[in-house]
Amino acid sequence: MKTNPPSGSESSIADLRHADEAELIDMLEKAEQKHGFIPREISDEIARLLEVKLERLRRIQGKLDTTIRRDVQQHVAHWRNEEGNLIMILHAIQNQHGYIPREVAMELSRELGVKLARIYEVITFYHYFKLQPPGAHNVTVCNGTACYLKGSGDLINELRTQLGIAEGQTTPDRQIHFETVRCIGCCGMAPAMVVDGKTCGHVKTSDVAGHLANLRAKKETAA
Ligand code: FES
């Protein structure tokens, strides 16, 4: 990449401060394509801004690592002498984060001296543990026998179509988590589903859009 003596304006350099890393690199490439060189003052400023951003990232990462290590050490210390402590610690981690973040699982593996693969074996064996952050809202369809016989399969298909995800997944904007369970104890209301903790009975496929619209409206109100 060639550079050239100063020629850019002050305002263009000021704009760079608001650009993210990808935009900064993109600007360099476009300037080179356009002029056949990069003005020296711009390339120096971009290099400096990238270094500043990198340094900030390192500081945040360092803080994050320290917090994760401290939390995991506390969980391990609390459960160290208990039988089945791995499960108890995973419960504590999930209660804290809402799921089991990968970096926490890695730290736990180091701290307990248990292989990461073994930790993932346990996490994936128990349906309760989650590997993805929970959504802001939850939709749970009961797929127990009574609900199944009353058409829970159609509700599940409707939700799959409307949300564009499968059960056990969260929408890409992390707003709605969708899952199925076996019997929520309201068989007389079959087919039933739970929307953000509220049990809804005798649900029809035509009701699904309304429930989702309400959840999305909550999102907009909160925004
Ligand atoms: S089977 Fe759905 S509530 Fe019991």
Explain how this protein is built.
The chain has 223 residues and is of the alpha/beta class. The chain has three domains: 1-79; 82-131; 137-222, Glutaredoxin, CATH 3.40.30.10. The protein is 59% helix and 11% strand. The protein has nine helices and seven strands; from the N terminus they run E-H-H-E-H-H-H-H-E-H-H-E-E-E-E-H. The protein has helices at residues 10-16, 21-35, 40-79, 85-97, 102-112, 116-125, 145-149, 152-163, 205-222, and strands spanning 3-4, 38-39, 137-142, 169-170, 176-181, 193-195, 198-200. Strands 4-5-3-6-7 form a five-stranded mixed beta sheet, with helices on one face. A two-stranded parallel sheet has the order 1-2. Helix 2 packs antiparallel against helix 3 and helix 3 (40-79) crosses helix 5. The structure holds FE2/S2 (inorganic) cluster.
Counting structural domains, the number is 3
At CATH level 3, the topology of the largest domain is Glutaredoxin
User: Nearest-angstrom radius of gyration?
Assistant: 25 Å
Tell me the helix content.
Answer: 55-70%
Provide the structure class.
Answer: alpha/beta
Bound molecules: FE2/S2 (inorganic) cluster
CATH-assigned homologous superfamily of the largest domain = Glutaredoxin
Q: Kindly provide the name of the CATH class of the largest domain.
A: Alpha Beta
User: What's the number of extended β-strand segments?
Assistant: 7
Average pLDDT taken over every residue: 84
The name of the CATH architecture of the largest domain is 3-Layer(aba) Sandwich
Strand content: 5-15%
Strand order of the largest sheet: 4-5-3-6-7
